[in-house]
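Progress report, Aim 2. The chain analyzed during this reporting quarter is listed below.
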Amino acid sequence: MTVVVLLAVAAGLVFAHRLYRTAEISLSGAILSVISSYGVDVIPERQTVYFGLGSDTPLGLRMTPECTSAFLVLPLIVVGAVMIALRPRIRNRVLFALGIAALAVVIVNQFRVLTLVGLVQWLGVDTGYYWGHTLLGSMVSVFGGAAALVAFVWLATRK
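Predicted structure tokens for the chain:
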């Protein structure tokens, strides 16, 4: 039953990724509202957060399918389902590991967004967006995703 539920969640992430992206960008907006001294506005139906409103560097970020944490969480869920199908007795460990790794991926993606925002505010829109999205943001995602994967495997397979 757990395997079926996990596979259904995985399918849900694929087919309802727009809803997931809306939740993710809303979380980004909530965090930015707390830490930013400038205006922040979230347009959920467009999966977009506008930040720096009232500053010299306002910008809107849209959470696209390529930038969401959903597709980093998806393989973890599928691998977790396979692990449970092959060894049902490790179900609880796998579910715990999956929860920790998924949370880590979401946090890393929020950190990536906040890094991008910080660099835009510090370096301006052109340079800050380039460094924050193309270079540093990608590095944050790769290293964070790798760390989450290592944590998942370690937590799920340790005795």
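Residues 19 and 77 are 18 Å apart (CA to CA). The chain has five helices and three strands. These observations will guide the mutagenesis work planned for the next reporting period.
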